[in-house]
Amino acid sequence: MLGERKGSHLDDELTGTPHRLSSFKISMGSTSLRGPALLLAAASATTPEEHAWARDQAIILLRSEDAADVHAAAQVLSYLPQEATDAVDANLLAAHPHNSVRQASAVLCLRHPTRYRSTTMQLATDKDFRVRRTLAQAAAQADDSEPTAAVLDLLAHDRRHSVRAAAHSCT
Length: 171
Hints:
Layout (H helix, E strand, L loop, with lengths): L10 H4 L19 H11 L3 H14 L5 H13 L2 H4 L4 H5 L4 H11 L7 H7 L5 H13 L4 H10 L5 H8 L3
Helix pairs in contact: 2-3, 2-4, 3-4, 4-7, 7-8, 7-9, 9-10, 9-11
C-alpha cells in the first residue's frame, strides 16, 4: 500500500457504463434519526427540565418535511406527563394536516376537557378514524366529566367499529 492508486482497484469495474436498471430509485423510508432520538430522549427524561426540553424539541420537529419525524414528535407530545404539555395548545395541533398530530391533540384535549371542549367535539368528527379512535381511547381513560361523557356518547355511535369499541371500553 504505497498510495499509487487514487481509488479502489474496483473503480474501473464499478464506475464504467451504468447498468440499464441503475436509473431506478429504491426508497427504504426515512433515513432521519431525529424522530427516534427524540423518542429515546423523552422516554429517558426524568426531570421536569428534561421533559420540557423534549416537548420543545417535539414542537420544533412538527415542522419537519419527514412524516416519520412528525409522527415521532406527536408520539412524544402524547407520552409526556401532563405538567410538561400544559403549555402546548391542543387547538393548534388539531388543525395540523398530519393525522398523528391530531391524535396527539386528542390526547392533550382530554387532559383538559373543559378547556378544549369545542376542539374535542371537532376531533370526534375527524375524517381519519385513527384520530377518532385515539380520542375514544383517551376519553375512556379520562376522568369523568360532562365534556368527556358527551364525546364518548358521540363516539359510541361512530360509523367505525373500532371507534365504537374504544368508546364502550370505559363501561
